[in-house]
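Need tokens for this chain, all 327 residues.
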Amino acid sequence: MKIERTEPAVIAYDADLYSSFPDVVFFAGSFFCVYRESDVHHPTFSRLVLMDSSDGETWHSQVVATATLADNGYVFNCPRLSVINKKLALTCDTKTGQKEKLASWEIYLAWSSDGENWTAFQDILIDGMVPDKIVVGDRKLIMGYHVIERTSKSNRLVQMMAESYDGGATWRDRTTVAVSTKYDFCEGSIVAVDTKRLLCYLRDNRAPTLRAQFAASIDGGRTWSAPSKLNITGHRIVARVKEKEPYKGLVVGTFRNTLNRNVSMFLHNLKRKRTQTANLDCESKDSLFDYGYTGWAENPKGEILVVYYIQRHRPNPMICSTLVKLQ
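Here are the structure tokens for all 327 residues:
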């Protein structure tokens, strides 16, 4: 896999705030990027910032929503942007405390026709963590998320999938994508290969440097295969099918590469069952949590704008971007 990329550019940074978890889409001729600002990685204060750019270089920003533990009883966690029926959909999970395994979690959803004016956030009655991008399936919308399954002996993570049959107004859970007594599945990225065939790329949360896995469904997500391991080590894969040449029809993904602290991209050839990986940027610190959650969007030229957060030698993380051309 050969790539050509621009030098990483800082598109948002505040030395006094923890900027993280960016995502991006291409909508109405512009890129739209959302990320979370907070006080720390597990925050007491949070706000969602939306930026837009016609060229991927000059960005304008607005604060979409703010939440604090003191005032609201929850904070925002990890936002995701999707384009659904010519509208922007912004999903984000909330948590009621700084300790993830003790907090309660809910997923909220807001809509915009122009990226500037937004509906109020709706509690869609899904008690889940780290929602995936919304995927268009066969006469339905699909959204992945994971939950903490608490037992008397231990807590484990379970990858789930919710569905909407009315354009996102209401959602129903709970299809189990992946659960195991051996693995700890979370942060699933669901890819619609066609109307019936879905893939879900999964993190194994038992340790930082474990291989990612993926499961498959041939019936629109009703049932899933047992997950199998990929030659990828990392977290928070963001994957989907590339829509334009080159490599049209192949699955592209970006992720936090924990093996060498890189921000990385992979190309998954499903027919050949091969995965190729390229590195985009490198974290210089040893901290696991201050880099590498990503989002990406393809422009009409087939180029991929990748956004991610990374700290390097700065007091707090920054939001960066790079434009990637696959060769």
